[in-house]
Amino acid sequence: MKNIFNTSKMLLLFLVLSVSGCSDYIELENKNDIPLKGFYNSESELNYALSGCYSTLRAPIAYEWMLSEIRSDNTFMNLTATTIPQNLQIYSNDIFEAPAFDSFIESYWGTTYQSIRSINALLEGLKTSYNPNSGTIEYGPFTITMTEAERKRIAGEASFMRAYHYFNLVRLYGGVFLIDKVVTSEESLRIPRSTVSDIYKFILADLKNASENCVSAKYGNTTDAQKAVQGKATVWAAKALLAKVYLTLGQKADALQLLTDVINNSGHSILTGATGYSNVFSSTNEMNAEIVFAIRFKSGALGYGSSLSNLFATNNTSVASQTKLAQPVGTRGSYNNPTAELYNSYAANDIRRDYSIKVYKPTATSLSSTWTYWAAKHNIATTVANDSELDWPVLRYSDVLLMYCEAVGANNPTTLGYLNQVHTRAGLTALTSTNVNTQALYEKAVADERRWEFALENQRWFDLLRFSTTMPTINAKAVMNNHFAVMQPFYAQYDGAYTTAQLQQKTADPKFDLLPIPNSEIVTNTINPIQQNPGY
């Protein structure tokens, strides 16, 4: 039996990695951090800064899956017998044992706040400010020559990006540091953690600003105005993200109004046909009608490529040959493997299964003795390591349709129609009212469709947590308890093998609910003591 070392025995290696290990993934220096004073003197400089802010969205994506998808029942890291500290950190997060000094948790936090700093600098340059009393973004006196509509358009896009970051932060860490302007290192030490409710109030203010001021041209409109914002935040992206925030808060009626507007007026649509699903993610079909918002990556050894093709690919040529997976140059491989549980949950004729997941079936002469499932959705050949062209989808039109079903919360001709737009595009027979004739069946159908549709897109963990509010027959802890029961033979390979009961106890631990505030934030602040999340 192969052993996987218990993460509790690796504390010293964690500490070493927290200093040195992150360089394997992405450089933490923020090259888009533009000094504020004296820079913003023209409309062109503000647009330049906006482009820089979009660039900063790329860095956190290298870590996001470690904090979200792998905590769900969708994926795990199938590197047995490893002693590499960074691998052990991912294992620890998979079973809710992450220590407060986990360097990847810290790296996601750091790259996200670096991006927020750039966005704050731009918003200050536009003379905007957040009013916590009214919960609004306010516009002050402004001297740069440009139209007020253009000023607010730039501010709206910046607000969207900041809200996107804080929405992820609050769901992962709980109450975080609400920073709405550029602060010095000394000033940052005096900022306390905000409450969860205050962070959501801030997110709502930003997204309302974005939904009022971003460009609202319909997708497919060939006007210069629409082309100019391709790949940027639009009114429709802002409304879709705001709807997801409202769903998370349990405000279904507010979400439904926004989702109806996006469906009826955005011009976005679902891609259909036998290759409809795969075309959503094609590097030659970027920003298609189904993409409401994506984080853009660009290959070409410019430093703008994605690392995910490398991280999720296999180094084993026999696996790559059998599964038809590309082996990107410099592949690390074996991270974020889909579970057999996810694979088997699909219908055999669901085209999403074989597009998203590839299966290695060992032969009598192969080294591996078990079937292995590989993440194919983000797999593409590269000529330079960590230089994938594939964009990262944040909001898709199918997400909008399924959020509508979630917001209504019951079967009717409209919800069944939207559910079936997604379901039948996958090559499946349309659902009938009989399939969803109880509340539990309806909620399971919506939850399953989201799982299959957005597998490996870092949605599942957030969905499970949200369902406890919107679709209460789907319980995150019950789902994960079942997951641990199914996966126990794998976790039995740990040093000090986990039993099913020991694994299931982890869903009752406070670590299940939130990640730790990075230890570096706590130990370096000698002015304002920072309270750690429970369980750490």
UniProtKB/TrEMBL annotation:
Q: Which family does it belong to?
A: Belongs to the SusD family.
> In which domain of life is the source organism classified?
Bacteria
**What is its subcellular localisation?**
Cell outer membrane
Location of the RagB/SusD domain: 329-536
* Upper taxonomic lineage: Bacteria, Pseudomonadati, Bacteroidota, Flavobacteriia, Flavobacteriales
Sorted UniProt keywords: Cell outer membrane, Membrane, Signal
Domain SusD-like N-terminal, by residue range, is: 28-247
- Keyword Signal present in the record's keywords: the answer is yes
The principal location of this protein is membrane
Please state what the protein is called.
Answer: RagB/SusD domain-containing protein
Q: Which PROSITE patterns match?
A: PROKAR_LIPOPROTEIN
GO CC, one annotated term = cell outer membrane
